[in-house]
Write a structure and sequence with these properties.
The protein is an alpha+beta fold. It is 42% helix and 21% strand.
Length: 279
């Protein structure tokens, strides 16, 4: 197989890539990101430490990683034996609402957080033959067939069906949660529930009976981003979801806690790469 295969549907509702990075004596750290798409990774080589909304997990070759949309995450990889992975991103609206069970098709992302099972062990991945769907997508993506898009979508749907099956059947006894900062998780939950409200540092520090300096320190330590950057990004992503659902741009701006449209516009363009009216 090639060292790199990248495929995007024309509307970017599905993005797939397979990448093999050469071995290295140093760790590779990848930038923190949060986006509007679900993400599934299958690790083939490399030991991956991944921080998801402040929780630290470890994934080994053969493991699968599930990342919900809007979750902040960044990766630190031990590349002694190389770093090989399949990654697929997809929008929640790729499923026709008329499709049976469409609304529940991706509930396993929420369930994975509740069960601390964002990492699915290799033994379960092998049992459900998960890798074959990634291989099928990679083969289709590197072909010249006129049915590439259909093949990619059909294999993604089959992959999601199998993941739903394993969540219905498995106990997930293998624990891959390495560290959980309770304070940071409480702050994140508070931010998520109060995006439209006052989320100044003074208010958050008062809410959690901590100094602003301490809060900023522990939050950056666990998430690799500042509280301010975290809040602004969460607000922009939420606003983008509102706009995508038909809400007026100005209404979306104020619905997620921005106090003026100019700040919203500049933040949106910086994070999303385009103007809010272009969604």
């Amino acid at each position: 197989m090639e060292n790199s295969i990248i495929y995007n549907l024309p509307d970017s509702s599905i993005r797939f890539h397979y990448i093999l990075d050469a071995p290295s004596s140093t760790h590779s750290k990848y930038p923190t990101e949060a986006h509007e798409q679900y993400e599934i990774m299958l690790i083939k080589k490399g030991t991956v430490h991944i921080y998801i909304d402040g929780d630290l997990f470890v994934a080994y070759p053969g493991d699968m990683i599930l990342i919900d949309f809007h979750e902040f995450h960044y990766i630190d990889v031990d590349r002694e034996n190389g770093y090989e992975r399949y990654v697929v991103h997809f929008n929640k609206n790729i499923f026709p609402l008329s499709m049976d069970g469409a609304r529940d098709f991706v509930n396993f992302f929420t369930n994975s957080k509740l069960r601390n099972s964002s990492i699915i062990d290799r033994s379960i991945v092998e049992k459900y033959k998960i890798e074959q769907y990634f291989v099928n997508i990679a083969q289709a993506a590197s072909s010249s067939s006129k049915f590439v898009a259909v093949t990619v979508l059909s294999n993604l749907l089959l992959l999601l069906v199998e993941i739903n099956h394993l969540f219905d059947s498995e106990n997930f006894q293998v624990e891959r949660l390495v560290h959980k900062d309770v304070l940071v998780k409480r702050i994140i939950n508070y931010i998520d529930k109060n995006l439209a409200g006052d989320l100044s540092l003074d208010v958050i520090a008062s809410k959690f009976y901590s100094s602003k300096y301490y809060l900023c320190h522990v939050f950056k330590e666990s998430t690799n981003v500042s509280i301010k950057q975290f809040i602004v990004t969460k607000r922009v992503l939420k606003a983008a979801s509102f706009i995508d659902s038909g809400m007026n741009v100005m209404d979306a701006c104020y619905a997620v806690g921005f106090n003026n449209y100019s700040t919203f516009y500049l933040s949106f363009k910086k994070i999303k790469g385009y103007c809010p009216m272009h969604i």
